[in-house]
């Protein structure tokens, strides 16, 4: 489901204006799929900028979360990535899902391919834009939130922190969490709507419990909304981001 951003969040798409220009499309060549992305360069084209990687939800595209890039402090390099699996001309997903006995089950092969491609994406953009590889934050909505959390837990050497909007903890990646000692210094921001019918608030509570059991510091922001992002949650995320 495509994220519907609130009117309070001004859309910028490919034009962030002034000192924070978007510099258009990029592509990482893959054997079977290309990972496309759009970028907002940091103020003054600064070197060693921190990186914010944005991952859209199921059936959306890279323009979606990029629309609130003007809310992020200007010294950040923002990279919004398109999922590799095509659903239609402007709709993409990170992996396929289905419900089995009332539970959400993912296609693990899809998820694994996307996760590995995203790690290559991180390496690619850090090198290409001379960014700070020690300050890479990944944040996503819904399925993109799930991918963000999976990346942070399985690649703690690559991912500094994660932001998860209306997502869930993927049990399927639990066996891949092998560097638990490296998670002790990690931080995760979780935002969820108390009226979310697609992914009920219980998923946020479960994620918080699982993460805290691993020693991860969790910041939780809730609002009386459905499966979307509110201006309150976005403000809380930006505040969390600036304190990392």
Structure description:
It is built from 5 helices and 12 strands. Strands 1-2-4-3-9-10-11-12 form an 8-stranded mixed β-sheet, sandwiched between helices. A two-stranded antiparallel ribbon has the order 5-6. Residues 1-20 and 29-33 have low confidence and may be disordered. It is 25% helix and 26% strand. The protein has a single domain, classed as 3-Layer(aba) Sandwich (Rossmann fold). The protein is α/β, with parallel strands linked by helices and 244 residues long. A hairpin with a 6-residue loop joins strand 1 and strand 2.
Quick gist of this model?
The protein has one domain: 3-Layer(aba) Sandwich (Rossmann fold). The protein contains 5 helices and 12 strands.
Attribute tags:
244 residues, alpha/beta, Rossmann fold, eight-stranded mixed β-sheet, 25% helix, disordered N terminus
CATH superfamily heading = Alpha/Beta hydrolase fold, catalytic domain
Main beta sheet: 8 strands, mixed
N to C succession of SSEs: EEEHEEEEEHEHEEHEH
Strand line-up in the sheet with most strands = 1-2-4-3-9-10-11-12
Task: Please count the helical segments.
Answer: 5
The averaged pLDDT comes out at: 86
Topology:
Elements: E1 22-28, E2 35-40, E3 51-55, H1 63-66, E4 77-81, E5 85-88, E6 91-93, E7 97-100, E8 103-106, H2 108-128, E9 136-141, H3 143-154, E10 161-165, E11 187-193, H4 202-213, E12 217-223, H5 231-243
Parallel strand pairs: 3-4, 3-9, 9-10, 10-11, 11-12
Antiparallel strand pairs: 1-2, 2-4, 5-6, 7-8
